[in-house]
Amino acid sequence: GVLPAGGATSPCNNLVEHYDGRAWQAEPDSFANIAESVAGPKSSDVWAAGSTATSGQPVIEHSADGRHWTVVYNPSIQGNLTDIAWLSDSDVWAIGSQGNSPLCVHWDGHTWQQTSMPIGPGVYNVGTRISADSDGHLWAIMDGYNTYLLESWDGSSWQAHPYLPANDLVTMHDIDAVNSTMVWAGGN
User: How far apart (Å, rounded) are the C-alpha atoms in residues 172 and 123?
Assistant: First the structure.
C-alpha cells in the first residue's frame, strides 16, 4: 500500500513483479488483492496468497500465464494468508491466521480445504511461514506470544518439532527447507 504525506491512508496499490531472466517487469494491475507470498513451478504457473484489500478475508489467486490472475479461494471468514508453498499441481498449501488460530488450507487439484494444525503453547497461535522441501515435505513456523513452534507435514499429518530458541528471540520471520534433514529458520 501507499501512504501519502501526513500519514492519511489511501487505497492500496497492489503490485506483482516478474523477472524474466534479464529484468524485472512490474505488473501493477494483475493482482486484485494484497499478495503476501507467491509460489509456483514456473513463471507461467504462479499462485499468490494474501488477503482482500477491502474486507480482510484470506484469498488465493492463480495465474496460468504469469499475467492474468483468477481468484481460486476466498472464503467468507476473516483472516489472512501469509505464505504459500507449491509441491505439485495437486498439492499447494497456504498458511496464515484466522483470529487467534492458525489457518492452513490445501489444494488437492480440485478444491481448497482447511486443515487443522497442532497448536503450540502461547496466547496467539498463528501460522506465519511455510516451505516445501525437495523430499515433498512441508515445514511451517507457528507463532505464539513470544513462543514459536516448528511443524512438518509428512504427507499424512502435521508433527510438532520442539526446538530451543534464543532467550531474546522476538520474531521468527521465515523458513526455508532444502530437504527433510536441512531446514533453516530465521528471526530476530
Answer: 16
